[in-house]
Amino acid sequence: MRKVPGHTLFSFNVKTGEIKPVKLVREASIGLDGNPVFKEKITVEKDCYYEQALNLKNFIKRLKRRGLIERVKE
After folding, report:
1. CB 59 within 8 A of CB 65
2. Which of 4, 18, 37, 70 has its CA 20 to 30 A from that of 29?
3. Are strands 19-21 and 48-53 parallel, antiparallel or unpaired?
């Protein structure tokens, strides 16, 4: 998945209903030209749905649109 500037990657656990932002691990290596090359990785958890959104409110809208949740418990 390509990173969209300004968006945050969120995860939604389908079984527990937990929504949280994902922590990225940034790895660095040296490219062929001698300059550093950075890659960001995440640890994928079981039963989780991942998507990028501007904020938490928009992420919840996307979950509703996809039919993963009907309403949010507040």
Report:
1. no
2. 4
3. unpaired
Question: In the chain, what is the straight-line distance between the N-terminal and C-terminal CA atoms, in Å?
Answer: 30
**Whether the Cβ atoms of residue 61 and residue 19 lie closer than 8 Å to each other:** no
Strand partners, 40: 26
Contact of 51 with 59, CB cutoff 8 Å: yes
9-45 per-position pLDDT tens digit: 999 999 999 999 999 999 999 999 999 999 999 999 9
Report whether 24 contacts 61 (CB < 8 A): no
Within 10 angstroms of residue 63's Cβ, the number of other Cβ atoms is 20
Taking the whole predicted model, whether its pTM rises above 0.85 is answered as: no
